[in-house]
Amino acid sequence: MSRIGVFICHCGENISRTVDVERVAALVGTLPGVAFSTDYKYMCSDPGQGLLKKAIQEQRLSHVVVAACSPRMHEKTFRKAVESAGLNPFLCEMANIREHCSWVHEDRDEATAKAVEIVGMMVERVKKNRVLPTITVPVTKRSLVIGGGIAGIQAALDIADAGHEVVLVEREPSIGGHMAQLSETFPTLDCSQCIMTPKMVDVANHPKITLYTYAEIEQVEGYIGNFQVTVRKKARSVDEDKCTGCGVCMTKCPQKKIPNTFDRNLGMRPAIYVPFPQAVPNTPVIDRENCTKFKTGKCGVCQKVCGPGAVDYEQEDQLIVEPVGAIVVATGFDLYSIEEKPKGSPIKGYGEFGHGKIPDVIDGMTFERLASASGPTGGKILRPSDGREPKQIVFIQCVGSRAREKGISYCSKICCMYTAKHTMLYHHKVHDGQAYVFFMDARTPGKSYDEFWRRSIEEEEAVYIRGMVSRLYQKGDKIVVMGSDIAVGVQVEIEADMVVLATAVQPQKGADTLAQKLGISYDKYHFYSEAHAKLRPVECATAGIYLAGACQGPKDIPDTVSQASAAAAKVMTLFAKDKLEREPIVARVREAGCVGCFYCQKVCPYGAVEEKEIRDRQGNLVKVVAYVNPGVCGGCGTCQATCPSKSVELDGYTDEQIVAMIEAL
Amino acid sequence: MTPKNILKYAYYPGCSLHASAGEYDLSTRELFKKLNIGLTEVPDWFCCGATPAHNVDELLSLSLCAKNLELAEQVDGDLAVACAACFSRLKTTQHVLGENAVKRKQVEKAIDAPVPLSGNVKHLLDILARDLGLERLEQAVAKPLSGLKVACYYGCLLTRPNDVPNLDCVEAPTIMEDVLKAVGAETVAWSHRLECCGANFTLSRPGVVIQLSHAILDSAKAAGADCIMVACPLCHGNLDIRQKEIEGVYNALYAMPVFYITQLVGLAAGLGADKLGLDALIVNPMPLLKEKGLV
Fold first, then answer.
1. What is the CATH number of the domain that holds B221?
2. Domain containing A276: what range?
3. pLDDT for A549-587, tens place per residue?
4. How many contacts, defined by CB atoms under 8 Å, are there between A and B?
5. Could you tell me if B117 and B161 lie in one domain?
6. pTM for the full model?
7. Largest CA distance in chain A
8. Sign of dihedral through CA atoms B34, B39, B40, B41?
9. Which residues of B touch A474 (CB under 8 A)?
């Protein structure tokens, strides 16, 4: 016989304003099986929980129903309280009479009657609850970090410094990411390379970090604490162990006319190359698509000149399986291109800016390469078309960002600041030049940010024009910028020598494919989704996977580094215990009824369903049934809804429990 | 010819084509006759409200267009529209009433009939480039416009408003160039093909029109164009009729003939000057056409 205790919460006035809580407590107290029923102002408070624990002991309660807010809010709180009083936590249920009742109704009598029904349903349900033991799984204390930009580097270093092994996987031939391309960084104008490259070297030298560059994630299996990750290490055509990084192959390579993507195609590079001189690892890679040897079979110069004999044309892709317990995703961003977009794309290009066909209309990253001391012009601001120094330069902000009609409605966050920085760099390098900025709003929240922006106007003489540009067109060797100054209410036309577009920050190409491999969710722009926008900003909804940097949303360097360290801290928290406790809300197969159709296996989003052979005593195979691996099961219940013979049930959400609730109505 | 290939349309000329832009009407009818495309004028059609109506009263402007759409239902085939403003208004009306059930009810009460939302409204350019198709257009060419450098001028309304399903890309359309290349002309790349000519400020504030249309003529000339091609009677008026005045104000010489799309395609199809109303153009196109051997 059940001895159920029911506790009705006032939630201050949130519930008691519309629900007569005392009446609910009195009515519910008469239900069969209810041994104790009461109401209290704040059940979640310390005295409220004390009341609960005392009642369990004094009244010898067998089950508990707390009628209060949503279980999403406080289920954990009350289950913990119940556990500390000596009951199994899964014998406690919550009845939601706040979100589902008091907040959405006005009539007190009707709301009270509904609250009684809601609580009554949970009373019938809790009678069917079973004792569920906590599931423990072992934790592999190694971490995978995907992406070797500043986010991935920071996360990898933090985790490795804590004494845990890290596998860092980077798609490009070198780590460094976009930060390695930048010239100087706001708000202090220190050189990006100078603060970045030491960290890159630290990664290469760290005994706890295994670095795979020119590699991609092929497959991810398993679950929190126990992932099996397959890494595809693409054929570099150069043996990393033999190569000394002398660079002779690069100087001797006869094919030197390949656009240098690291320099935003402003310069050329050979077919065997490192992306930039400070690359880590300093091992070249052969770009097989453009290499004469691979295209025609004739050449082989690099192999001939390589002293240590490191060049290996026969090298093949390698698949490496790495067991890890946690994954940090730090794949970063890409920039919106104004070029013509394929038909049907939700993102539209900028026909009014020439669809990217005017040579001296460049984007912010290209300007970074021009301004970088190690860039293709050695840090001189020169026009790509004719190499002249631009004397009138126009910066346009919000290109692609905050432009719903172009398909992107969000703010890219970093452009106001980097455009202000660009005007300063320009003023430092072209003393007799004039910079103009077209902007919608200047968004400069951040430590020392607004001061920085003001400086670009007050000391560095940038002219800011509030308004957007309607059209750019080439006129002779000038670019005519047609815009409006909405502060004055006039049309503005500037004949510029160069135009720099602050194009929107977008996720890396292929972000969606990677997310599907990892089983994490993403938004319509393909930015990865955090578990909670405010309270769980670095965790994915999928347990054991964490986010760092711009793959989650546009971020500047300080924010990226902060989030990377936060993700690392989350990984270390996970690694602090040898065993991981999991909620036992998992599916269970009733083997007697299972016919082995494996529909459950097809629908399971977690890959938790395995095949299990049933044999008789002589060892003859009787049948093959489904088995749900409790470590992998995410507790979604899809298998339960799918099973044609009703042979799989989710613990805590069994048909018996649900039917009991319906019958109570 | 299989029945599928027979093209026929209801024709909505719009007010201008019955008045100041008679040559656009004439050349449209002649060209379509030549191309074996059926064109039946919508009986009893009236003004679409153009730009003024929707600035004064949205319900009035929607109702005017809706009634015309309803009248067009009497004639078989999609609705062919020549004027850019009529096209934009009729398309917009269909779009707005399709999205907004409240406005649709108001309009249906005003015109006392259901609004046909499914019928296709098509600009002549659309018919030439897509229904007939560039390939068949090419086959219909009797006299290719070789050597004629044309600045295709879209103006504002042909591809706007942005959110209404439209003729072509708002910011970088190519449909005019596609059609002209099919008939052998050369099109120039120029900066002002989508800028406003000043439109109906031509009556209330001609100074604005002179300034804006000057920029267009100037840009077409700088790009090396022999002539400009338009598909809107108002653009035509501003660039052609006011050209002499603009030349006076800016002390420039353009002598830049401004053709309607149907006139140039008509020429290529082998129609004579009399059937295209070329004599109605203010800037005399004959010297240019003679020089290029087209008349």
1. 3.40.50.11810
2. 248-305
3. 999 999 999 999 999 999 999 999 999 999 988 889 999
4. 22
5. no
6. 0.79
7. 94
8. negative
9. 191
